[in-house]
Design brief:
The complex is a heterodimer of chains A (182) and B (70).
Chain A: H1 3-36, H2 39-42, E1 48-52, E2 55-59, H3 62-95, H4 102-117, H5 119-136, E3 137-139, H6 152-179
Chain B: E1 5-7, H1 9-16, H2 20-27, H3 31-38, H4 47-57, H5 61-64, E2 65-67
Antiparallel strand pairs in B: 1-2
The chains are: A mainly alpha (182), B mainly alpha (70).
Chain lengths: 182, 70
Amino acid sequence: MTKERFKKINRFIYGLSNLWIVVSAIGLLFFSIFSIFPKLFDKINLNLSIELPGISFILKEVSEINSYYFLILTLNILIFLLLGIFFRKIFKNIKDEKIFIKENFNYLKSIGLLTIASTIPYTMFNYNNAKIILENLKFHTSDFSLNIKLNFELVILGIIIIIFAEIFKYAVELREENDLTI
Amino acid sequence: MILPIIVNLDVMIAKRKVSSKDLAEKIGITQANLSVLKTSKAKAIRFSTLEAICKYLNCQPGDILEYVEE
């Protein structure tokens, strides 16, 4: 890959990260309003009912699930927004040809920690959805139980990013030493 | 952070009556880097740079570099 092509790709990704932040900020505003005023969502009138042989699913009492549901989504999108901000800072530094600097190491480490943290709302969201489905689903035969499943893939990804950040820190030290070698 | 190796380049430059600008030009480094060297802030020096300095100033590495215990 030529330097020019790398710069073009970097500029494009930098532009995408700006869009990422704008969309996340709008989503955060939207979800935080609904988590504080869940009754607003009632007016959108989303009643769900499915009837199939052997099972029936009716989503009722929407306002009861609203505030918790939107709180989880707000937390998730807040993490998403912070990730976007850190990615944008890294790509801006790369755009300015400041690659091996301590700042980028700090941003990478933060991205790793946020990736691990994002498993929490993700798990809460899935657990909540499963709970709603089980409470509303009527089965004629089997028994079901709820289990909490942590998204280990995201945890491992977060750990890999943190390890990469530590390797990057070493590269920063090498660059600094090289700069001070006359 | 003061490193134990002191670079006495200023002394040698004064003895040989040359300018820092000329020295930097002749040995092929920037004035900023020469300043880093003179103030003992450099972490390392290449043998090629040391050779060029000694050749231009007609001196030995020991005339420029001094070890001082911390």
